[in-house]
Design a protein that fits this description.
Elements (H helix, E strand, L loop, with lengths): L1 H12 L10 H28 L2 E12 L2 E12 L9 E7 L12 E3 L3 E4 L8 E12 L2 E4 L6 E4 L2
Length: 155
């Protein structure tokens, strides 16, 4: 019964190791390893959910912004565990070619769920856009896959 009392007191505090059962240093090490493993599993689960999020990007219309021609791009989640609100930001890439020319740096980064582009648009030129979202976990950015490509010919 004395053992049971010691164990009950230890269980209530849940931090220090029960005397006579485990060396306190060993106990703390085990608890740290368990916490680290749980954290690693949580991060892996989040990363997997981010990787498996599928986006659809569309060019809804040509419009004007400050008197200049503009193209509006919007995107939505069409598959996966997360919704748009679960991401910290979105990188928009632009090209004048359908399958290449997007570069390695985003054309624009935003926290909004749409983008109105009026930068360097030329009449008669078709612009292609693709989007990916990102979420920061433990100081590292994790990216979704690419959205479908949206395009618009400037008139």
């Amino acid at each position: 019964t004395e053992d049971m009392t010691l164990f009950a007191k230890w269980k209530e505090k849940s931090n220090p190791a029960p005397s006579g059962y485990v060396d306190p240093e060993v106990y703390q090490k085990i608890m740290a390893e368990i916490a680290d493993k749980q954290h690693t599993e949580e991060v892996a689960e989040i990363k997997d959910a981010v990787d498996n999020t599928i986006f659809n990007a569309v060019s809804t219309k040509q419009t004007k912004l400050h008197g200049k021609k503009a193209v509006k791009i919007t995107w939505s989640v069409i598959g996966g565990k997360y919704d748009l609100k679960d991401f910290e930001g979105f990188d928009i890439y632009r090209s004048t070619k359908k399958s290449s020319g997007y570069g390695t740096k985003p054309f624009f980064t935003t926290t909004k769920w749409s983008y109105l582009n009026n930068k360097d648009l030329k009449v008669g030129q078709t612009y292609y856009y693709k989007v990916r979202a990102w979420k920061t976990i433990d100081g590292e950015k994790y990216y979704t896959g690419w959205s479908t490509k949206a395009h618009r010919t400037v008139k």
